[in-house]
Amino acid sequence: MQKDISKAAAPGIKAEIDLRRRPRRGEQIIQSTLWLCGLLSVLITVGIVVVLFFDALAFFGLDEVTLAEFFTGTAWQPKILQFGLFPLFNATVLTSAIGLLVAVPLGLMIAIYLSEYASPRARNLLKPTMEILAGVPTVVFGYFALNFITPILQGVFGRDVVEIFNVASAGIVIGILIIPTISSMSEDALSATPRALREGAYALGATRLETAVRVVLPAAISGIAAAVIVGMARAVGETMVVAIAAGAGPRNFSAWGDALSGLSFLNPFKAAETMTGHMVRISGGDLSYDSIDYNSIFAIGMMLFLMTMMLNLISRWIVRRFREEY
Amino acid sequence: MNNASNGKYAAEAHDLNIYYGSFQAARDINLLIERQKITALIGPSGCGKSTVLRAFNRMNDLIPSARTTGDVHFHGKNIYDRDVDAVEVRRRVGMVFQKPNPFPKSIYENIAWGARVNGFKGNVDDLVEESLRGAALWDEVKDKLRQSGYSLSGGQQQRLCIARAIAIKPDIILMDEPCSALDPIATLRIEELMKALTRQYTIIIVTHNMQQAARVSDYTAFFTVKDDRTGYLEEFGATKEMFTSPQSQVTEDYITGRFG
Q1: For chain B, which domains are there?
Q2: Chain B contact for A108, CB < 8 A?
């Protein structure tokens, strides 16, 4: 009825003002749709964790498996019921560490160059190129490691030292793979520091390098740490490169003494299968549901999840501790 | 530190022209900056006074499109000569900015930082105390030197920035509207500080505040905009004379508040 009144009101004559709530169907539909989308992402995350947790629990519930062996054993050989996580965990740590050793310095240098030194023209050329690098499928990177990096390593260190499948080439290529992530996120953090800070440094007679490294970099450290965390999570979770180039079997040890002698567990030039590499290899074969192999995948997956979560928490703590807030 | 024996003037600008791309921000500027005096640059918004200020320590170099012609004589040398290092110029011509911009470090580190990048070899603790005393801030912060510079009030932050500037013992301190973000009491303290600093330093200050120029400065340069063209130096002389008997009608109109 209200509608009729307002229609009837002639211009210039004050119509009665109606402040009552109006049903806005469109708004309501959009709002509930968006809410459902948010809910969906939460549900998927929770679902994944729950599935991981229960199947991992099923694995640890088996008589053949003990938690003690899982965490302290030095060999992963499901065929003879040895389930020591260490060889897989070690390979993941090695490839990720090598990857970060490559990616953090390079990615940071690229970010500092782009944000503090590059001319607008150079930046406009370099940034899209980096983004193309980020778009290369990881399987391509895997064969790049196997067919390009490994021969180089063999050429430098000798064929008898460097195996065809080895941790180093996979790690280096993981590093190349995460450079775009680290450099582009770090560059955003560096560029976001106020111009006034830079001017303050320059006005004290600081050089470009001193300004970049001793004022801008510390001020941007929390953003840079976030970049490194994301890069680290990608390195730990990277699968294709390690499956192709790192090796197709765990680097097992008969005992801790064996692993520690000559620090052979750290040797980057020998093959080793990472947690992700192992999961993708055994699930690729004829794996039957609810077998011990099948359940072990979930236990490893659960550990991967815990690892990235721990890394996340530790880095957050470090950032909070050393942040220079402006 | 004013021991360079080239006479009365700490710096001289001759026929200075500054461009941002094709836009000219300063035209044929000639300024003589007397030692241990305060020279104020005043004028309406966009008249080019900050640009001229930043010409004295080559801060305009940081803007990629900026181009400068003419001379700024400092220690017997034109700082725009090819063989002059802008970093060396800035080590001798300090600057305080419009908005306080302490580093996100401790109060102590804010002072020590500039000295360290300048290769300071002496006792840093003493330098920090001396600089903070020089900036009339020591008594307020002596018990919290390890706290962040950002924990201070706006006026204290600005005095910290002044302390940071004098820690490297420059010849000249440039101040770009140093009080525009501060309340009247903090402003008064900075003004008193500026007067005290002239015992050792030469100061050039850009200000929007006419009373401030009249209160603190010995010389005033009035910049103006004519026919949409910016960067004219309309009048330059002793502050007392300019505020009592300005030579130009435009100056008179501006300082009496008829425009600007």
Answers
A1: 9-102+172-255 (3.40.50.300)
A2: no
